[in-house]
Design goal:
about 160 residues; alpha+beta; 2 helices; 6 strands; about 60% helix
């Protein structure tokens, strides 16, 4: 080998070594960024889960807060002595009104059955031939259904005229 070729190879080796060191540095930096990103993502997941749990607890507390007046009324009714049947009925009606008001404040409303049978809102447990009711109208409600603005909580259980 000539002296020129040997000297060329010596010059190439330092260049390759420099490039290798540069690539190793870049790799180390990339690994570091990746590890930091993974740690940030884990922290994000934990924070999101914690926020979700806090929100859930808040919603439960707000819901119970709306229903507690009716519970208080029922407790007072149990303590009432010498109440007539008429007074008890009036108390139950007032308590039911308190429950209804609490549900309304939470955005929960009863499902309407006057507009006729709707399979998305009603569950028909019986179909009956009737001349007194138009076809597909709700004849009787066995269990009232409830909904929010965008979700059925419980379908109304009804009988439907054929």
């Amino acid at each position: 080998m000539s002296k020129e070729k040997v000297s060329e190879e010596k010059q190439k080796k330092p260049k390759k070594t420099e490039e290798l060191e540069k690539l190793e540095t870049e790799l180390a930096e990339t690994k570091d960024r990746l590890l930091r990103l993974m740690a940030e993502f884990e922290n994000f997941k934990k924070r999101t889960e914690r926020e979700k749990e806090e929100q859930s607890a808040y919603v439960i507390c707000e819901t119970i807060l709306q229903l507690l007046p009716a519970v208080d009324s029922l407790e007072m009714a149990i303590k009432a002595e010498n109440a007539s049947a008429e007074d008890m009925k009036k108390g139950i009606e007032l308590t039911l009104a308190q429950f209804s008001a609490g549900l309304a404040k939470l955005g929960i409303e009863p499902i309407d059955t006057e507009g006729g049978f709707n399979p998305e809102l009603h569950s028909a447990i019986m179909h009956t031939e009737s001349k007194d009711y138009p076809e597909n109208s709700v004849m009787e409600v066995y269990q009232k259904g409830y909904k929010t603005a965008n979700r059925v909580i419980r379908h109304s259980v009804v009988s439907v005229a054929n």
